[in-house]
Amino acid sequence: MATTGSGAWGIRSIPDQRGRTAVVTGANSGIGLVTARELARRGARVVLACRSESRGSRAVERLLAEVPDATAEFRPLDLADLGSVREFAAALPYERLDLLVNNAGVMALPYGRTADGFETQFGVNHLGHFALTGLLLPRLLAAPGARVVSVSSGFHALSDLDMGDLNSERKYGRWIAYGRSKTANLLFVHELARRLGAAGAELVAAAAHPGYAATNLQSASARLEGRRGAERLMELGNRIIAQPAEAGALPTLYAATAAGVRPDSFTGPSFLMWRGAPARSWRARWTLDDVAGERLWVASEQLTGVTYEFPGS
Q: Catalytic one among 94, 111, 172, 178?
């Protein structure tokens, strides 16, 4: 997976994206911005779906400064508010959608709740994207060769889901909750791919993770809580250990654009799931559990009120 005819798969390996429309969530910085920029560089029309209007608008300005002939726009989307998710989907003017990159996320936050009462990490990282994908599904199914790429993490290995406590109401540990939300991302892709296959749909659902990439995600929790020492430590790790966001975005871009990407595949960096060219990544066995995938799916439809409609159903 990690090589092409001219060597390792990299930014220059991204195929022509002209005529395609893509939505990238959390595209105001880091991996999301790199993903949006490189898709636009190859000719895609890109929608940067971001919570903050100011940061989203500045991201579009940065993108256009680097790729002056790009077609890119900001649209507001708050994944912590299902009302915002529905508004985004209703306002999106495009009848067909070729690519949805579920990239936005939060990591290791203190306990909190979304606007709809869900534990924040589970609500943003999984339920918000579950609802968004379901609401946009008819447009994705209308585009030949369309894909949904969900960004998970190697930290999914921290924990399987507790189906009896999806919102961590009985016990909360910030890192365990993060791991569970990333497990939910992979189970979602697994079950979505299974259902698409059963319906005979061409839409490909795949997952990716960036390894250890230098983004704002690592230090956000410490900054939010005013833990300056922890914030500086995270920033130091980003400078010394992490690979740049440009490299961290490669697995996502591979899953989104490379030929032959298989449904329910999980792409990450080739070296120890940490850095390097995109390659098939290890995943915990519980992320391939059909029963768990079905149970999470049913719970997610009930919690979000979004029911997926597949061909022939």
A: 178
